[in-house]
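To illustrate this point, we now present one chain and its tokenised fold:
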Amino acid sequence: MRSVYVFPMRRREDLEKKSPYINHLTKYLSERFKVINYGRKPKLGVMDIFFNSRKADIFMFNWAENKTGIQGWVLWLSIHWLKLNSKKIVWTHHNVHPHKANSFVCRLLMDTIKDKSDKIIIHTQESKKHFTSREIGKMLYFFHPLFDRDPLFLEDQDVPKTTDILVWGRVRKSKGVDDFLQFMKERKLFEKYRVRVVGKFEEGTFPGYLREYSHDNLLLEDRFVTEEELNALHREAKFVFFPYTGSSVLNSGALISSIPRMTPIIGPRVGAFKELSDRKLIFSYDVMDDLENYLESAQAVSPEENKAKVRAFFGEYTWSKFSEFLSHNL
């Protein structure tokens, strides 16, 4: 059995709550590989890679390009060290560019890991737009699997719809919530649609949202949401809306969490949103001006037909099948 080192890593008790992607990845990789650092938080940060360079055959990196400062430079050296020692480097492309795009270290890390990776995993075909032909030749495509749930798909949705548009998840500038609310306010669409925004707002920003967008048809809630409450929020909503405007949008954990809850989704025509829209699994928009007409026309779509398509597509892209796919291709 080949051994794998997964980056980044948390303590096992923190993985499920704080890192669902890494939690699922390591859990299912363990069926076919030996994950040498599973559930073990490194005591010395990225220096842990050096200490384990002889113990693993494959090093899998996620969000490595977001490291800054000394940690970023050590990670850059680690990647070169692994190549010198003939280790296989696998990098998953999660974002178009680093979260801190103006950081020299982050940009250097992204360029380096693109170049030094033996394989690049992409979770949407839209990733290919951001790579050279040489880099595309190293790519392995597997759409982002749905996170484990029991049952996987939420079926009992025959409840009164108390919300027209649900926006949920962390609220920060790259999520585009302020642009969306400003659009709704300027077009006086709060007179027509009931909107609910629930999620943790950036520190200190929530009072400003309350002052700026106060309306009887708008409910703003600054709090975390449990899995069980997410089910109820989706059941009560006509649509889930993702107003993302950040230039690094490629995929979304909130999108992957919303899909199995079977409420119609509307998102920007970029990244995984575009791919799923092209497959007729969700709805997409090009500019915010389209939203009102789009909401009206989307109501004519058959929910049951859409649910069947979603089940069929994601039946092919499960975490277990992802682990099997990696075992054959790494």
Observations:
- The chain has two domains: 3-141, 163-313.
- The longest strand covers residues 88-93.
- The mean pLDDT is 90.
- The radius of gyration is 21 Å.
